[in-house]
Amino acid sequence: MDRSLPSSSSPAGAANRRSLYPDNEPFARGWLPTGGAHEIYYEECGHRGGKPCVILHGGPGGAINPTMRRFFDPKKWRMALFDQRGCGRSRPNASLEDNTTWGLIEDIERLRVHLGVEKWTVFGGSWGSTLALAYAITHPERVEALVLRGIFLLTKRELAWFYQDGASMMFPDAWERFVAPIPPAERGDMISAYHRRLTHADRSIQAKAAAAWSQWEGDTISLRGPEARPSKFNEEDFTVAFARIECHYFINNGFFPEEGWLLKNAHLLADIPGWIVQGRFDVVTPLESAWKLKNLWPRANFEIVWDAGHASTEPGVIDGLLRATDAALKL
Fold this sequence. Notes:
Elements: E1 28-33, E2 39-46, E3 51-56, E4 77-82, H1 101-115, E5 120-125, H2 127-138, E6 143-149, H3 156-163, H4 167-170, H5 172-179, H6 190-198, H7 203-220, H8 236-251, H9 261-264, E7 274-279, H10 287-296, E8 300-305, H11 315-328
Helix pairs in contact: 5-7, 6-8, 7-8
């Protein structure tokens, strides 16, 4: 049986929604060698002696940002954030070399050991939820709790919905812009068509494809419309890294050994408490995936936010995540 959060997910609760915690600056930062081609940028925020957590950004190919620090009480949590391989301030930028889910899981463990943390709460949304689940399945002894948003299981069904046939029916105007760089003969497999361009030797071809790829996600991310589109989607360096890495992971099916690997191994989450906050009208990562996960994870507190899409900055999603991180403090 799933357990619900004390909820603002109905219209009656909307007036009581909370806003983000105050911004807080890192008290430590640095680059962590991986033993290979990558160096991972990380930072710590909040209280040095607080309850430890690690915050995983989305994408794949996104980057950390100051807003991510504001889902946790900075007086009570010790927050660790890092830019994943090829992302943000990690080096080298946009690199696909040795860039896999399993490499990122190694980086999470490497960071945990470096920071002297025995066990921590893991927070992630969208691709961050994918990575959090994979980490918890492979390292359950290191996870005190999971706080997740916009569940993405990285299945062929989800990828086909968003990049081939599904979301296109809800956003035909944005879809028209997304397919425009791709000749009609190649549109039967949009991920492969974009992958060819995003890995092309010509940077200008990469940049053009990356701009269209990123705009498609930006156009569909929120019920609040274009104003919710992340400002970084206007920066070429960010969009090239974002689109290249995201497409690299998707064409390789997340580097999972089999289709549906996360759900097939969800029984390994049985002893881990968790919270799932999911927008009812999330087009990027539809509700079906969160529903399937919560049915296989008895300790998950589950909340559907009635007036939210995919973005973490939707008011109801903010409120649900803050209530979840506050509850996780009591474990």
